[in-house]
Amino acid sequence: MTVSLKEDALVLVTDDDGSIPLGGGSPLGLYYHDTQFLSGLALRVNGERPLLLSANHEQNYVATFQLMHASGAQLGTARHMHEALSIRRTRFLSDGLRERIGILNATASDVDLVVEIEVEASFRDMFAVRGYRDLTDEGGARSELRWDGDRLVFSRQGRDGIHRATEVTTRPAPDDRSDGVLRYRRHVEPQGVFSVELRIVPTEDGIGERPAAPAFDDALDQLNARYRRFLRGCTRFRTSSERLDEGLIHQSALDLRALLEFEDTGPFPTAGIPWYAVPFGRDAIVCAYETLSWNPDIARGTLRLLARNQGTKVDERTEEEPGKIFHELRRGELARIGAIPHRPYFGSVDATPLFVLLFAEAIRWTGDRELWKELLPAAERALAWCDGPHGDPDRDGYVEHGTRTGEMRNQGWKDSAMSLSYPDGTWADLPADLVEVQGYVFAAKRALADLFEQDGDGARADRLRGEARELAERFERDFWMPEERCYAQALDARKRPVPAVTSNAGHALWSGIANADRAAEVIRRLMEPDMFTGWGIRTLSSRYPTYNPMSYHNGSVWPHDNALIAAGFARYGYREEAAAVIEGLFEAGKRFPDSRLPELFCGFARDLRFSSRPADYLVACIPQAWSAGVPFLCLRTLLGLEPQLNGHLRVDPALPAWLPDITVEDMRVHDAKVSFRARRTKQGVVVEGGEGVIEARTERERGERRLASA
C-alpha cells in the first residue's frame, strides 16, 4: 500500500509508513514538474525501522503515521515490548514537504536515542521512473550532494538547461552528518519527548537564499485556511442521506481541491494521483463540466489554460494542428528536450469539440461576457479544426482520428489499444469515426449557436444549427444498428460500423444528437443485464467476444462515463432510469475506502445476496478528477438544473425514493448566489426558495417518461 499527497504542483508518494525506499530504483518520491526531487527517505531509531501502527491521509495534503519502536519486536508478534517508543510522523505539502517527527519515551526508564534520517534525490523524469523512457542520465550530469551550512542540497544540471535542486533543512540541526544521513543523539527521560522538524523544498533554476518559511504549525494553519476559503466559495449540497453527505460528497470536494493546480489562468484540475497529476485536456474538460454547478471557476481556469496551449502549427511528432486542444502536458526534462512528445502532446480526437462545448456551457452558467470575448476566437479555431482537413480529412462530415506517432492508437476517451476491436478481436482499421465524438461536435455547434443568437449574430447561429442538423441526419443513417437497437461504437476506415454495444452510445444521448425514438431504444439496451451491472453501465457488452470485466475499457465500469450517460437519460425524459444509474454509482462509492469513487472498477454484476462491493481495478487512480466530479453532476441531474441565458436557473427535480430531499446553498448562477430546497411530498416534488432566480417545474409539467420494461 502507498500513501499519496498532493498540493498544487507537488505530489508525494510513499510507503504506508511514510518512508521512500533508498537506492534510487523506487517510483515513490516527491515530484514537482514531473521530476523525482526526492527519491529516498528513511527513518531509523536506534538502527531500526519503526513498525507501523496506523496511518491517516484522507485530506490528500496532510498525513499522520503512528509508529512504534521496541527492540526485538517483530511485525505480527502477539506481544508489545514494555520498553517501547511511540513515534508519530505528521506531514503536509505546502512550500515543499514539511514533516514533524515526535518520539515519546513511553517507559519508566531513561532511553538513549540515535535518530537517523537518510535522504536521496535522483531527479529522474517521471517517464524514466515509469519505464517509458530511461534517458535521464544520457549526456547529462548525475546529481551532486553538498552541505551549505546546516542545509543539505542535492542538485543536477539537466540537459534542458534547468538547474534542479532539493534543499533539506531540519530543526534542530543534526548533531552529525555523513553523505545524505542526518543524525541526532539524545538522552530522553521517562515520558519525555524528542522532536525534529524537516523541510524539503524542490527548486528549479536557482538555489539562492529562500524566504523564511512560516513555523510548522503556522504553515499548516495557513494551508487549512486556504482549503476552507476555497470550499466556502463552492456550492454546498445537503441531502436526506447523512452517509452520502459526509462520505461521497464531502470526500469528492476535498479530492477536487487537492487535484487542482493554480496557474495565472485560474484553477485547473489535474487528472489523477499519483502518476497523472498533470494537465490532461479531456479529463479536465469533463471534470470542469461536471462541477459547473459546484464551482464554475474550475471551468474558467480550464478553458484559459487550454486556450493558451491551443495548437497553432502542424507537428507530426506531437500531433499538434492549428486549433486542436492538447491531450497531455508534461513539464519534465524529457518533455523539454523532445525525448517524449508531451510538450504538450495533442493525440486526442475529442478534447477539441469538448472544449467548445465546455466554453458554451460555462458562459451559460456564468454569464461571463469577458470570458466570451476572450475565448470566442479559441472556440472558433477549435470548430474550424473539427470541420477542416485536420479533423475531417476525408471530408465526409465526421471528425475522425488515425495515429501518427504510435503514442496513442485509439484517441477517444477509451484510449487503450484493444478498446476498438472487431468481434474476432482484431483491432479496427483506422482512421475511425467514434460515435461519441460526433455527438460532441453536434452539441458544441448547437450550444455555440444559442450564444451567437443571444449576441445578435443570427447568421452564424443559423449556420451552426444547420450544420448540426445535417450531422445528426448523417449520424442516424450511418451509426444505427437495428439488430442491436444501439449506435455502433465507431465507423472504421472503410466506413463500416464497428458493431460493439458500448457505453459510448450513451454519450450520444448526453450530447443530444440521437433522435427521440432511438434514444428510447438505446436507454433500454444499456439497461439490459449485459450492460448494466447494478453498480453502473459497463464499457462493453458482456455478449461481445472481447468482453473482460477486469480490463481497462472492455467491460469495466467508469463512474464519469455513467454520470454523463445518466445525464443523457434525463435529457430525453427518462429520469427513473437516470436515477437507477446514479443510485448504483452512489452505492458503489459508499463501499470504496474513504467513500471515494475510483477512476474505474471491474464490471462484475452486483450480487445482492452477499451484499458484495465492486471489485477494484488494481491500478486505478484514486482520487481521479472526473470521478471526483461525478457526485456533483449526478446531483445536477437529479435536480434537473439547467441555466438559462437570461440568468435564471431552471430546476426540474425528479427525486427518487432513496433520496427524497436535497438542499442547495450558495450556488453561483450568473452574478447571483441562489439557495433552494427540493423535496418529495405527498403531492409530488416541490421546490422551495430561490425567488427571482429559480424557474421550477412540477412533475405534471415535466411529463416524465419511463420505459415500458422499467
General description of the model:
The protein has 710 residues and is α+β, with helices and mostly antiparallel strands. It is 29% helix and 24% strand. The strands form 8 sheets. It has an 8-stranded antiparallel β-sheet, with no helix packed on it. The protein has a 5-stranded antiparallel β-sheet with strand order 1-2-3-4-11. Strands 5-10-16-15 form a 4-stranded antiparallel β-sheet, with no helix packed on it.
Low-confidence stretches: none
CATH topology of the domain at 2-225: Beta-galactosidase, Chain A, domain 5
Structural class: alpha+beta
User: Helicity range of the residues?
Assistant: 25-40%
Largest sheet: 8 strands, antiparallel
**What is the assigned CATH homologous superfamily of the domain at 2-225?**
Glycoside hydrolase, family 65, N-terminal domain
Q: How many H/I helical runs?
A: 17
Q: How are the strands of the largest sheet arranged?
A: 6-7-8-9-17-14-13-12
Q: Radius of gyration from the CA trace? A: 27 Å
Tell me how many strands there are: 31
What is the highest CATH level, the class of the domain at 2-225? Mainly Beta
Mean pLDDT across all residues, rounded?
93
Give me the oligomer status.
single chain
CATH architecture of the domain at 2-225: Distorted Sandwich
User: Separation of termini?
Assistant: 42 Å
Shape: globular
Q: How much strand? A: 15-25%
